[in-house]
Amino acid sequence: MGNRLLPFRQYNEHEVVNMFALDDTYINNSVTGYGSGDAGIFVKVTAANLDLDPVTYGDNSYLGKTDYPFVGNGGANMYPSVTLKIAPTTGINERPLGIALMETAQYDENGQKLLYYPQKAQELQVSLPGKAIPVATRGIFTVTNRAYDGVLSVGQGFAVSNGGNGKITGVSVYTTGLLGIVGSPVLGTVLATGSRGNNGATIADKYSGTYAVIKLGL
User: Fold this and answer.
1) Rounded to an integer, what distance in angstroms lies between the CA atom of residue 10 and that of residue 136?
2) pLDDT at 181 over 50
3) CB-based contacts of 30, cutoff 8 Å, min separation 6
4) Is residue 54 exposed (0-12), middle (13-18) or buried (19+ Cβ within 10 Å)?
5) 167 pLDDT above the threshold of 70
6) Which of 39, 78, 105, 161 could form a disulfide with 28 if both were Cys (CB 3.0 to 4.6 A apart)?
7) Domain ranges of the chain
C-alpha cells in the first residue's frame, strides 16, 4: 500500500479537515505501489472556490464504458467529485494544510477497481478518486523514510522539502519577519527517530529502514 505512516499516532478529530479531495493528477493507480497519492503526504490547497457546487459530475473513464444503451447513454452516467482540491507540497515556500491520513487509489492488488468494492477500500483505508480525504492539521505521527528527504534529528524541526512529492525535511531555523531570520518555516518538532529491520525474519519488513515520530504544529 502507498502508506508513509506507521500505526502510532495521536490527534484530535477537531484538528482534521474533511473538505478536500486529492487532485486527479496525483492519484495512485494501484495500492501495490507508492506515489503522490500516498497516506502521509503533506498537502496544500489548490482549488477552493466556494461559488461552485460542493460536488461536480463529469465523464470519467474510471466508470468504464458509459455510452452503451441503458448504462448512461447520452452522457447521463457521470462520476461525482468533490470540488475543493489539494495536492502534494513541492517546496519550502509553501504552507501545507496538513498531512493526508488516507491513500487515494483506483485499483486493488489484483487490478480490480476499488469503485466496485467499497468495503475493501475501507478495509485498506484507501479513498476513491474524487472523494474527500481526512487531512490532519495537528498531532503526533510516525512516518517512514518515504515521507522525508535527508535526516530528521531529534529535537529539531521539520519543513516542506524542496524535493516535492509531499515530503518534509529536517530544519533547525525558523522564519520570522520580526527577527529577520532567513530559513525554512518550521511545521513542527521531531520527537524520536529509529530504524526497522527484519529481526532475523525470512520475509523482509515492508517498512524497513529509518523512521521518525513527529509532532505537527508548534
Assistant:
1) 10
2) no
3) 105, 106, 107, 108, 109, 111
4) exposed
5) yes
6) 105
7) 5-48+84-216
